[in-house]
């Protein structure tokens, strides 16, 4: 694309990375896969190392990170949405939070600068896992027909309205939920990456133009790039948090049906 | 319309590409209006309830993020359409 004589790379070039190893096989490894492997390892390392340390009353170092992460998930996700009997989902929710956080935050880490979740595969897989878990929990805690009845025929609705409510609930509970969960994470990361690339390309092009371009780059687009980088750190953390809290809300909804 | 463009020497394909670009831009802009208003309402009400009862700020903040997430989904679907329509 060519905007105002500015060479903007085509969108595909920003998200398609060439394979590094095993090219041509289904196990090809490129930058996205490497980021996912690194964030998996980082999640395992934090909790593995923190769990192996001798328990100390005043947590320090990596134990502090792990404990405040677990505490944060417990206080502001599980207790707010599921309640005390949601504690058995703590490991799952904490893992999901840290994995998504680590693969999002690569968006602003220098020399990596690519949010791995801006490729659809892993967000979709995570959303499918969440879908399977909340349906399983619903069937286990209410029975198959009880779960269907509570999710398709919400109590307290006049019976004639079930003609409208039931199809809407069917679509929104079993189709739209995983879809919107995956789209939300993916599209936020794509939008953030496009925003950062736009301002980076703009700064470089203005600087290269020289003359009044130096001033424009230094005064307008480069401060904007720094501001957007800060904003994207916020978005990365927020999207990980929102994915986790929506997972908790869905699990809580199928554990305790509305009365 | 296409005949007129053919007379002026524009390819029909280019014309369609242009229409696509206009549609993508307009589509995203239209999709952002509703969620923009909605997120404003959600956050505004959350702030006023936090100011009224600062002790319930934690619960209100969690619920606010939930509301934002549900409202934002529509804008994001508009953004997806924008990406899909890009030439």
Task: Explain what the structure shows.
The complex is a heterodimer of chains A (259) and B (87). Chain A has 259 residues and is mostly helical. Chain A contains 8 helices and 2 strands, in the order E-E-H-H-H-H-H-H-H-H. Helices cover 72% and strands 2% of the residues of chain A. Chain A has a two-stranded antiparallel ribbon. The longest helix of chain A has 48 residues, at 162-209. Chain A is globular and about 70 Å long. The relative contact order of chain A is 0.13. The model of chain A has no long low-confidence stretch (mean pLDDT 88). Chain B has a single domain, classed as F1FO ATP Synthase. The model of chain B has no long low-confidence stretch (mean pLDDT 84). At the A-B interface, helix 3, helix 7 and helix 8 of A face helix 3 of B.
Name of the CATH architecture of chain B: Up-down Bundle
**What is the string of helix and strand elements of chain A?**
EEHHHHHHHH
Fraction of residues in helix of chain A = over 70%
By oligomeric state, this entry counts as heterodimer
Q: What is the structural class of chain B? A: mainly alpha
Fold topology:
The complex is a heterodimer of chains A (259) and B (87).
Chain A: E1 2-3, E2 6-7, H1 11-15, H2 31-52, H3 62-81, H4 90-105, H5 121-142, H6 144-152, H7 162-209, H8 212-255
Antiparallel strand pairs in A: 1-2
Helix pairs in contact in A: 2-3, 2-4, 3-4, 4-8, 5-6, 5-7, 5-8, 7-8
Chain B: H1 2-7, H2 12-52, H3 57-85
Helix pairs in contact in B: 2-3
